[in-house]
Amino acid sequence: MTETQHTWSEAESARYRAAGHWEGVTFGARLRRAAADHGNRVALVDGDRRWTYADLDAEADRVARGLRGLGVGRGDRVVVQLPNRAEFVLVWFGLQRLGAVPVHAMPGHRRREIGHLVRVSGAVACVVPDRHARFDYRELMRAVRAEHEPSRSPRTVVVVGDPGQEYGFVSFEALRAASPSSPGRAAPDAALPTTGADDGGADPGDVALLLLSGGTTGLPKLIPRTHDDYAYNARACAEVCALDDQTVYLAVLPLGFNFAFACPGVLGTLLAGGTLVVAPDPSPQTAFALVEREGVTLTSLTPPLVTHWVDEAASGSWDLGSLAVVQVGGARLPEEQARKLGPALGVTVQQVFGMAEGLINLTRLDDPEDLVCATQGRPVSPDDEIVVVDADGRPVPDGAAGELLTRGPYTLRGYYRAEEHNRTAFTPDGYYRTGDVVRRLPTGHLVVVGRIKDQINRGGEKIAAVEVEEQLLVHPAITAAALVGVLDERRGERTVAFVVCDGEAPGVREVAAHLKERGLAEYKAPDEVVQVSGLPLTAVGKVDKATLARELLRR
Prior knowledge:
The chain has 555 residues and is an alpha/beta fold. Helices cover 32% and strands 24% of the residues. This is (2,3-dihydroxybenzoyl)adenylate synthase.
């Protein structure tokens, strides 16, 4: 798929523009407008560092000039793999000012995933930290570049922190400080953005960023989001959440996640003129201290964090009076936890069910408690089209379970450079097959029942079973393997690897070390390893994972 294929029809585009969903403004221009409207208001907080909207706008120009000096321009893809720190936002808007395309990578991704993203996106550059969580990203980048031919390897690596002289990488601070005429930084005729440049000539219909799918067939697919559709995603969520210039949003989850970035998250807050506060880690102690200090009004969590936050709040040693709304998404929140969370923190709970591919569902702030605690919300846009179908593709009545199909003004029409997959991921009339099994209530709220995809949702981290299984089979002791997700109160699902072995099965630690050596992210390692004499098969010869899960429950 190219950047221009699989887009909305002319009629749909005209309808979305007429409805005011698509405003025809790039993100580079939006930041310029925000600086004009809210210049001296605080836009971004990271520890002791603060940026006003005017500062953020100027910083985007500065980063854009540095990146242009390294040869990055309109349409170029740049993998951004940064933890929660302000530089993620600075780099993101710097790329938007160039009309370049950030590829959102997760901090937990390793050689296999990052190499895949580089290959598929054709990235010309990567931006990484020096070290984070005791992991050296410079070594990761060296390994990724060594695996690619020079013509297909990212020509530039920018490091936030110490670039290390032995790697030949570029320091982010040096990039910021570089003047347009710095020797060796650019060809003499390179057109450098000036203070008045908004977006490097980008069009609102251009791809503005590439998000990652959960990945059900191994490595993640890339999801193209345009300036028009992604801004509407953030604005529609912000409207449901009643964001304004008094909003203070605490980014607890990784900034690269769609949930934290635009539901409404980072973008929704900044487009409303509010303040974004970056939390370096998701612990309740860190977060509650920031709530007290910055007057945080809104934040977003995944279900595994809820119990820790509730327990810490019970200590009574924190002033959480400013915190008004806590969103929970990324995985289904058990109803019992949903009923505890609001009273424990003194907040309104908002359930979130969505996907990086588009459709976002939120419970409303004035919904009855039963809907808030027992459903996963309803679509944020009046033009979100929803169909729930049975196995034969026929619509089912409200209350019946079926696969969720959707299309609308911010739901993709095709994955990036994945033509074969696109033929089955979408219906002929443009509906996206989500793979989620839901029940729709007469109110329009959705209850998530499960998935038809072979994907495991472990505390919000999406794990493609087939990818882990393929790497398990490389282990010399394992002759057959099946990765199964089973219900878990704390994580939503935990992963169990059923393995057939010659001799004794490797333990959990050995399997984790093996997968790490194979280049997989650490969160993909199974929580449990169970040795079996053979894998049960269905009538059509596929591994019967439902039987494996049932057998595990009987143990």
